């Protein structure tokens, strides 16, 4: 994709585990996020979603091995030193994680924490940072932000804390925001408000968002495109409209079938018979084969990634005939 603010190419991450073994948490992922676009990243627990986000943020467990490319506005982040990474983190790329409480320091006021996020990266006066922090708290929907600036986090509800974390993440107009389950801890009404907020902010600032979730209802509400991750690999990606109307990969279909209705409390794992394979010893061939209703002899060989006429992609032998027709 041209004009992508974030371009991930053939990314592989191996995490060392005791016994001299490695978890291949991300295995050959290629994915792009355009300016102002929200791309959903979905899949069951343990499929490598957070590890992918961590690789973009330069925050992986110690000793991890990474290969492939992570391009931010065409600059490869993989060559950066820790110091260079610290400089762009919270500036060009920012993270909002599931647990707002853990991102906020209980001993400082919420306003001071947003102002600090600005001053870490911008040479501005305390006063200017404070004014900008008040403005940001207002933008994310904190009522009476000037008065609330001095309040400590414990005076805020979970939803309000998550707004503060988002305000801090957006403080420096990042090109890319990684939002890892940003609404999982919140009730449905607050979740909807936070998602609308993310949408508004991407429209306003052109930030590209990678929204990690196991909730396809969240994806349907707010994303432009979606990538489905299974056992460290992207097995299908496409526009939200196409993927929901016509899911191609049997795993995507199973995920859609197992989702509770979008208005239900999310966060429960979808129930698909079987389990995600152990990523220290992934199966050869298609990784979903042992759970797939359409399994066939050829699935013992890893499927090709097939480009569909609508621009989507699927890694499944079932669709090979379609590409041959396209060509
Ligand atoms: N620090 C770590 N040490 C060892 N293994 C890890 C570590 N972090 C992740 N893994 C392994 O990497 C794989 C991918 O995990 P990851 O947390 O990226 O999945 P996820 O899709 O984000 O899951 P969830 O939906 O539960 O957040 C899993 O097998 C997990 O056990
Ligand atoms: Mg995760």
From TrEMBL:
Q: How does it sit in the membrane?
A: Peripheral membrane protein
Q: Does the keyword Chloroplast apply?
A: no
Identify the keywords attached in UniProt to this record, alphabetized: ATP-binding, Cell membrane, Membrane, Nucleotide-binding, Transport
Task: Name the PROSITE patterns for this protein.
Answer: ABC_TRANSPORTER_1, ABC_TRANSPORTER_2
GO terms (molecular function) for this protein are: ATP binding; ATP hydrolysis activity
What is one GO cellular-component annotation here?
plasma membrane
The UniProt entry lists the main location of this chain as membrane
Q: Where is the ABC transporter domain?
A: 6-256
Does the keyword field hold Cell cycle?
A: no
Any Gene Ontology biological process: peptide transport
The entry's family comment says: Belongs to the ABC transporter superfamily.
List the NCBIfam families hit by this protein, alphabetically.
oligo_HPY
Name the UniProt record assigns to this protein: Peptide/nickel transport system ATP-binding protein
């Amino acid at each position: 994709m041209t004009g992508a603010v974030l371009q991930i190419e053939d990314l592989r991450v191996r995490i060392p585990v005791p016994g001299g073994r490695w978890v291949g948490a991300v295995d050959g992922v290629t994915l792009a996020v355009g300016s102002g676009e929200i791309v959903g990243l979905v899949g069951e627990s343990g499929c490598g979603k957070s590890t992918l986000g961590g690789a973009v943020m330069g925050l992986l467990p110690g000793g991890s091995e990474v290969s492939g490319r992570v391009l931010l506005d065409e600059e490869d982040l993989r060559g950066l030193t820790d110091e260079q990474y610290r400089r762009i983190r919270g500036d060009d790329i920012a993270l909002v994680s599931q647990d707002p409480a853990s991102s906020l320091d209980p001993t400082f006021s919420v306003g001071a924490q947003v102002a600090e996020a600005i001053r870490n990266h911008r040479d501005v006066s305390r006063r200017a940072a404070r004014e900008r922090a008040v403005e940001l708290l207002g933008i994310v929907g904190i009522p009476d932000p000037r008065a609330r600036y001095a309040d400590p986090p414990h005076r805020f509800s979970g939803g309000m804390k998550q707004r503060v974390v988002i305000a801090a993440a957006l403080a420096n107009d990042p090109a890319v925001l990684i939002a890892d389950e940003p609404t999982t801890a919140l009730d449905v009404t607050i979740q909807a408000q936070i998602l609308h907020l993310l949408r508004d902010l991407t429209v306003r600032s052109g930030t590209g968002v990678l929204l990690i979730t196991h909730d396809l209802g969240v994806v349907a509400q707010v994303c432009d495109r979606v990538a489905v991750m299974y056992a460290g690999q992207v097995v299908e990606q496409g526009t939200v409209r196409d993927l929901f109307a016509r899911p191609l990969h049997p795993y995507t279909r199973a995920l859609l079938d197992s989702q509770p209705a979008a208005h239900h409390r999310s966060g429960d794992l979808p129930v698909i018979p079987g389990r995600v394979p152990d990523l220290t010893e992934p199966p050869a061939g298609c990784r979903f084969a042992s759970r797939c209703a359409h399994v066939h002899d050829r699935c013992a060989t890893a499927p090709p990634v097939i480009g569909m006429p609508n621009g989507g992609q699927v890694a499944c032998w079932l669709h090979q005939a379609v590409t041959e027709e396209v060509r």
